[in-house]
Design a protein that fits this description.
Number of helices: 11
CATH class of one domain: Alpha Beta
Radius of gyration: 22 Å
CATH architecture of one domain: 3-Layer(aba) Sandwich
Number of strands: 19
Order of helices and strands: EEEEEEEEHHEEEHEEHHHHHEHHEEEEEH
Strand content: 15-25%
Largest sheet: 7 strands, mixed
CATH topology of one domain: Alkaline Phosphatase, subunit A
Strand order of the largest sheet: 9-14-7-17-18-8-19
Distance between the termini: 37 Å
Low-confidence stretches: 1-8, 41-53, 216-226, 274-284
Shape: globular
Structural class: alpha/beta
Length: 458
């Protein structure tokens, strides 16, 4: 720790709290020399020490994937522009209307068959972030393309402890056939490190927690989980708190309390008696209630970004063609089965409930991000949260007019609070190219992209 010419303590952004098998990065603090949003220009003064220079708050990019499409008439606003109406499925996001962009007209062409026959669920997820046509195989010779999150990770991943984080509520299935001749890996993988290297999801909260904060699987912290990770680092944090200002002490308290709360919630979930066994294999150490499970995943994502452990996350709410049931909201039939409603009013009503439940999980994440102060704004101001699906109508398996939201302000670079209606067949890859620009990871083109989306610019 150093002091600037005003005798205010300053510390490095890369300061870590280390304990036995534990590494914890700090959240963004005022004493790190000041923070500006992405759109502002930091001014470096030769008279000020390096530790006191104004730092730019980083942008974060998160993709949340929801399977099996939506009930599109209940999703899509009827009018474009800033005066768009909140539709039935967007109702959980009403208070975030000015913090998001609703897209219409975006298409994932490579999710279509192009002569390969059935397999729309496999292609929907595989092509969503890769912009590539998956090679039809149920063997080990899978091939699709590098995904947009991994392009960003390859460019900026060295600036954080983890280049990226891949999580979800259901595991990646690396073998077998899941969709008319397509390998299960396509249905269950959103992120691809290369054309032939899928990035498996972590789906157990405890494993995600250890990935974020433990030094390695053989560390004492991983071997003795009953002792809190914080117990290894709090002594140093108390010393740090005594040397920073009131606002930074509050930020540190909020951060460590959030870590402690997640640990306690995971401990409670691990000791709860099992509920009625569903018709899918449930991983251990996760809450029986899906909403509680997703909230823990959301809290872990917030911690990962708040600590700057990573700036790039993919989160799969459920795998493509997932037939998960949701008894807590009165849905005892499987999601995939329900999505093939054939215009049955009862099935459509059930699907609306499932779609709404998934959107509620996004609302929870946005609430957490907006509650955390960062510089002159909030973490939501400095994030880009994409929520969407590679299928539009799950009954028809169509891949145009995809249900897509972009939440957050991208460090002040995104003109939020609008519904943008694009011409039919506008590539969703145009959106990915536009987001890469904001992650200091610009590319000339990606997949079938035809340009940027200038309507996003402030």
């Amino acid at each position: 720790m150093t002091t600037n010419k005003l005798n205010t303590p300053t510390i490095s952004r890369r300061t870590l709290l280390r304990g036995i098998g534990v590494t914890m990065a700090l959240p963004f603090l005022d004493c790190m020399g000041g923070l500006v949003a992405r759109g502002a220009q930091p001014v470096a003064s030769s008279a000020a020490p390096a530790a006191a220079q104004i730092a730019r708050i980083p942008n974060r990019m998160v993709f949340m994937y929801a399977p099996n499409g939506k009930v599109m008439p209940e999703w899509t606003p009827k009018t474009p522009g800033k005066d768009y109406e909140i539709t039935r499925l967007l109702e959980p996001l009403r208070e975030y209307k000015n913090d998001m962009v609703v897209f219409s007209g975006l298409a994932a062409d490579k999710a279509r068959s192009h002569g390969d026959g059935g397999g729309d669920h496999a292609r929907a997820m595989a092509a969503y972030l890769t912009g590539a046509q998956p090679f039809k195989t149920d063997g080990s010779n899978v091939r699709v393309g590098i995904s947009v999150d991994q392009i960003a990770a390859s460019r900026i991943g060295q600036t954080t402890r983890l280049p990226s984080l891949e999580i979800g509520s259901e595991p990646t299935n690396p073998a077998g056939s899941c969709d008319t001749g397509y390998s299960c890996v396509y249905n269950t993988t959103l992120s691809w490190h290369s054309a032939t290297m899928p990035m498996p999801k972590i789906y157990k909260p405890r494993d995600i927690f250890n990935r974020l904060f433990a030094d390695g699987p053989a560390s004492p912290a991983a071997a003795a989980r009953k002792k809190s990770i914080l117990d290894y680092a709090l002594n140093e944090s108390h010393s740090l708190s005594a040397r920073v200002g009131t606002n930074d002490r509050r930020k540190l308290d909020e951060y460590f309390n959030a870590v402690r709360e997640i640990e306690q919630r995971m401990d409670r979930a691990a000791t709860m008696p099992p509920g009625k066994k569903p018709d899918y294999a449930a991983p251990d150490e996760i809450p029986q209630n899906f909403g509680e499970y997703m909230q823990i995943l959301a809290d872990l994502m917030v911690l990962a970004m708040q600590s700057d452990t990573t700036r790039i996350i993919t989160c799969v709410i459920a795998n493509e063609s997932s037939n998960r049931t949701y008894p807590e909201i009165g849905i005892n039939d499987g999601h995939h089965e329900t999505s093939h409603h054939h215009n049955n009013p009862d099935k459509i009503a059930a699907l609306v409930k499932i779609n709404t439940y998934h959107v509620q999980q996004l609302a929870y994440l946005l609430k957490k991000l907006k509650s955390i102060k960062e510089g002159e704004g909030t973490m939501l101001d400095n994030s880009m949260i994409v929520y969407g699906s590679g299928n539009a109508d799950g009954d028809r398996h169509d891949h145009d007019n995809l249900p897509t939201l972009l939440c957050g302000h991208g460090g002040g670079t995104i003109a939020s609070g609008q519904h943008i209606h694009y011409a039919k067949e506008t590539p969703i890859n145009n959106l990915w190219v536009s987001l890469l620009d904001r992650m200091d990871s610009s590319v000339d083109n990606f997949g079938d992209s035809t340009g940027r989306l200038p309507e996003l610019n402030v």
